[in-house]
Amino acid sequence: EFLLSVLANVIGDGIWYGLFLFFGILVIRGQNLVKKIRAGKTTLAPDGMRKVHEYSGDLYYSNAEGNLTNLTKSPEVMDFGPVWSPHGIWIAYTSRTSPVSYRVVDAVSKKVWTVGTTTEIPRLPEWEENGDLRLDLGGAWMIVKKSEIARKLQ
Asked: What average pLDDT is seen over the chain?
């Protein structure tokens, strides 16, 4: 009985040590991923406090405290070219789908709206000073009004 008790404690300690080691590795891997994301291409918000990071085909939002959120969550699609709106609430970007999509995401609510598509080689979306969005749809410019974006992302 004593031998079984000792054996159970050793095995139990081994399991706890194994779990500690396993979760420790997960934490280290998670920290390394955060470092890699933050080392990727970064676009600053107009306030200079928030950022969007491009990493491995996804876009990650970093708030003023440095917390990361995956905005696009689309590993099968390459999302790139984030551009902050002048007021710093929305982020326009290009998504390499078929056809190529232009999308806008609200940095606060994380809602996404596909604004337009093109079969041409995409150019990055452009914001006008008044908050309207300009998209190149294969030689023809499309203007999306700030009010329309606000309505779609509310």
From this structure: 79
